[in-house]
Amino acid sequence: MILSGTNNFVNGLFIKAGTVSVTNGDNAGASSNIITLGDNSGNAAVTLSCAGATTFQHPISVASGNTGQAAIVASAADKTNIFVGEVTLNTHDLVLST
Predict the structure, then answer these.
(1) Dist. CA 71–CA 62, nearest whole Å
(2) From CA 38, how far away is CA 47, in angstroms rounded?
(3) Per-10-residue mean pLDDT for the chain, 98 residues long?
(4) The pTM is what?
(5) pLDDT value at position 79?
(6) How close are the terminal C-alpha atoms of the chain, in Å?
(7) Is residue 32 classed as helix, strand or coil in its secondary structure?
(8) How far is CA 32 from CA 11, 40, 81, in A?
(9) DSSP letters of 44-80?
(10) CB 60 within 8 A of CB 33
(11) Measured between alpha carbons, how far is 34 from 13 in angstroms, rounded to an integer?
(12) CA quadruple 79, 49, 32, 27: dihedral positive or negative?
């Protein structure tokens, strides 16, 4: 799924399987939205793909109970992404890559 433009939705962004691609932090809704990677069960891989150089204000949480890989990938040409929000790992690994 590709999120683009400025979005104002609230209540969080839940990526339970597959890849969500964003070009800037505004794509993920209100800056208070928690971006949750993974589900509380299963083994689906999840990826937040950052296609543009941006700063994310959003807190990020990696769900517990999912054995699939959770990743944040910088796919922008200059690979410059800044994450300001808190990152919470709930008994799961998080892969950061470019």
Answers:
(1) 9
(2) 9
(3) 87 93 87 91 91 84 89 78 87 78
(4) 0.86
(5) 67
(6) 19
(7) coil
(8) 9, 21, 18
(9) --EEEEE-S-EEE-S-EEEPSS--S-EEEEE-STT--
(10) no
(11) 6
(12) positive
Tokens 């690979």, residue located: 79
Place of tokens 């204000």: 57
Tokens of 39: 């589900």
Facing residues of 30 across strands? none
Strands ordered across the beta sheet of 35-37:
13-15, 35-37, 60-62, 87-89
Identify the pLDDT of residue 82. Answer: 83
Q: What is the side-by-side strand order in the sheet with 95-97?
A: 2-3, 18-22, 46-50, 70-74, 95-97
Query: Residues for the chain: how many in total?
Result: 98
Contact (CB, 8 A) for 42 and 70 = no
Contact call for residues 37 and 65 (beta carbons, < 8 A): no
